[in-house]
Amino acid sequence: MLGQMQSQPLLISNLIVHAERHHGSTEIVSRRVEGDIHRSNWATVARRSRQVANALDALGLAFGDRVATLAWNGYRHLELYFGVSGTGRVLHTLNPRLHPEQLVWIANHAEDKALCFDMSFLPLVKAVWSKCSTVKHWIALCEADALPADHGIPGLVSYEAWIAGQKDSYVWPEFDENSASSMCYTSGTTGNPKAALYSHRSTLLHAYGAALPDALGCSARDAILPVVPMFHVNAWGLPYSGAAVGCKLVFPGPALDGKSVYELIEAEKVTMAAGVPTVWQMLLGHLQQNGLKFSTLKRTVIGGSACPPAMIKAFNDQYGVEVLHAWGMTEMSPLGTVCHLKNAQLDLSPAEQMAVRLKQGRAVFGVDMKIVDEAGQELPWDGKTYGDLLVRGPWIIASYFKGEGGDPLRYDEQGRGWFPTGDVAVIDADGFMQITDRSKDVIKSGGEWISSIDVENIAMAHPAVAMAACIGMKHPKWDERPIVVVVKKPGAEVTRAELLQFYEGKTAKWQIPDDVVFVEAIPLGATGKMQKMTLRQQLKDYVLPGL
Ligand code: AMP
């Protein structure tokens, strides 16, 4: 017997229709690439996304065609989120921090038909347009008069001119909710980048899940600042959850330094912000140097790489801001776990609570997870046993775009497919997961594993350390031994011996790194994560002390 409820596909257009009807006057504020502050609202975003839809139809793009963006977080990018996907075309967010060659490869692989870019990327587009063989339409996200006459890109139009002539009425089409809505490439460690191809259904379920109180906890009373870029896993889905709950959204544009982010948080009364640890490092540095406090910020979601305990403590103890440590990945739309205490844990001492909050957290409903050994056998949730972390759920990929890399899933006895995350983790009896490492970064010393994250976290707790990366170095007896590569805070001093001393009593003796290497900078990838592969390459001639 079938249920007798209305059958409506879960479509991204539903989100913008809802946001306009129920939260039309709620503000969308953006710092533009020009540096000024632009004010819009959900009704205006909805109206202009309908103009985008009409403009795409006028270009003759087919259902499922890819429309790429090369843009910072801002209102025009938001309009494209709804305008492109709402018509059944696929929004392809390109990461402008990639090498131009890689961008060209990705645009060609995705077979992008149109590409919309922020004016700050005009030099980049000038350098690559002739190699993007499938892109027929170039759209600069600016006013008509901001286009220089000598841009040299055939058919380039300004976004404002492109949509200006279009009607602002549009009937969003209804189609299969499993249709592709957007895509994001993830750079694997080997081979070419592969794309996660999200569907309308996966995006809407993720929008519901992410908004839950024990996930990101979004509401109409929030002003949310996604510092995490809209080109990286759809800014963790915040534009969609934001439309679902009708919150104010505040976009930082390209200004991600501590001062700019702080000023935006204060001026726009931001209640929640989300980003990777490196961004918060800059923000905390700015606050500390200038003796500032937050007046409205209540919580900040930190994920993308392990959040150092020192950062969680600084936000909590010095600024009264709750850190929600979150874990996920491009292949997971991206949300997997968020760390919120359970009821019984509210009676724990502050130190015990902090120990829980350092973990990556509990699975959001919609995500199931398990840890397994090398034979694929499930391991116990005892907080000690570590294994490969596998996940399944309706917003986790079943395969990569164009089937690249074959079938990525591992199947259990019931034939259910689990996605191997490439992370090594422990899970405790309350279901709190803690990432020990990326499987490729874990250090194997004398048959035991050393978590590079643990080694980094201790260094990061030292007041003179701005950034720390732990990598394994070949050792004839132990197989590998850890070293820690450190960037000092400006003006701060610490010696090798002092830092090694700092480890004493904080971890087992054999887990203390063999050496400290001070560097000016640690290479960061296109999404702000430390690039250990590049770091290993830079240190290829390094020899461990005593060898
Ligand atoms: P990406 O798909 O580029 O977002 O990278 C996903 C990977 O980032 C995960 O598989 C983890 O290795 C890492 N990651 C994300 N969030 C966290 C976190 N909170 N703690 C530790 N690692 C994380």
UniProtKB/TrEMBL annotation:
Domain of life: Bacteria
InterPro entries xref list: AMP-bd_C, AMP-bd_C_sf, AMP-binding_CS, AMP-dep_synth/lig_dom, ANL_N_sf
Record-annotated AMP-binding enzyme C-terminal domain positions: 455-529
Sorted UniProt keywords: Fatty acid metabolism, Ligase, Lipid metabolism
Molecular function, one GO term: ligase activity
GO biological process: fatty acid metabolic process
Domain AMP-dependent synthetase/ligase, chain residue ranges per copy: 18-401
Record-stated family: Belongs to the ATP-dependent AMP-binding enzyme family.
Name of the protein described by the UniProt record: Fatty-acid--CoA ligase
